[in-house]
Design a protein that fits this description.
Oligomer: single chain
Protein name: Phospholipase
CATH topology: Rossmann fold
InterPro entries: AB_hydrolase_fold (IPR029058), Plant_Biomass_Hydrol_Est (IPR050955)
Number of helices: 7
Order of helices and strands: EEEHHEHEHEEHEHH
Number of domains: 1
Distance between the termini: 27 Å
Shape: globular
Helix content: 25-40%
Strand order of the largest sheet: 1-2-4-3-5-6-7-8
CATH superfamily: Alpha/Beta hydrolase fold, catalytic domain
CATH class: Alpha Beta
Structural class: alpha/beta
Keywords: Signal
């Protein structure tokens, strides 16, 4: 897991944490699935250790068979996820690394969950599936996701982002004709719906089952 610079960075992005699968360098002709992971509000700033300690990067580092390239950008202090900056990062990753273009996945938690919804709504063609966790977004903008595989997570007792945010977005996707939406709502757990989600091996099997 290494720190990397975003070239030609815009807005709120300068650095990201990169994880490469253990067999990446040994198989130079192989293309690997990619996960882009957007952190929450508490990890903003210029200390990449804040994002390294989150559940998904830790899972990737500790799992013996984690076969994804994982990219975890960090927002600058007092900024929010913005699509132009993220698109610069996206293009850089596809240029620099052996990514399977049919297996590109977007996930995020809390503020990052909002980022997932907003980015996927305006650029659904970029992703094979999305996993927004305890986030929210513009319900009226959701029909571009009518064909997007999604697994949404939220806790019913979330005190920071109302569970109604995810419920409304899931309903909007289904109302637009999307029949490939999974929704996991736990009765308790507060704002943290991500630890259980990212430590569940079924999530990664589900991601791999979805290709563009």
């Amino acid at each position: 897991m290494t720190a990397q610079q975003v070239r030609n960075a815009k807005g709120g992005l300068d650095e990201f944490v990169l994880f490469l699968p253990k067999n990446y360098n040994a198989e130079p002709r192989k293309n690997f699935p990619l996960i882009i992971f957007l952190h929450g509000q508490g990890e903003r700033g210029d200390n990449l250790e804040l994002v390294k300690k989150l559940d998904l990067p830790k899972y990737a580092e500790n799992a013996s068979d984690f076969g994804f390239i994982l990219v975890t950008p960090q927002c600058k202090a007092d900024t929010w996820w913005d699509v132009p900056s993220l698109r610069v990062l996206y293009d850089q990753i596809l240029k620099d690394y052996n990514v399977d273009p049919s297996q590109i996945y977007l996930t995020g938690l809390s503020m990052g969950g909002y980022g997932v919804w907003s980015w996927a709504q305006v650029s659904p063609q970029l992703f094979s599936a999305i996993v927004p966790i305890c986030g929210g977004g513009d319900v009226a903008a959701n029909c571009p996701l009518a064909a997007m595989p999604a697994w949404v997570f939220h806790n019913a007792d979330d005190p920071q982002v109302s569970v109604d945010e995810s419920r409304k977005l899931v309903k909007a996707m289904r109302d637009c004709g999307n029949d490939n939406v999974k929704y996991t709502e736990n009765a308790t757990g507060g704002h943290n719906a991500w630890t259980a989600a990212y430590n569940n091996p079924e999530l990664y099997s589900w991601l791999l089952s979805n290709k563009k």
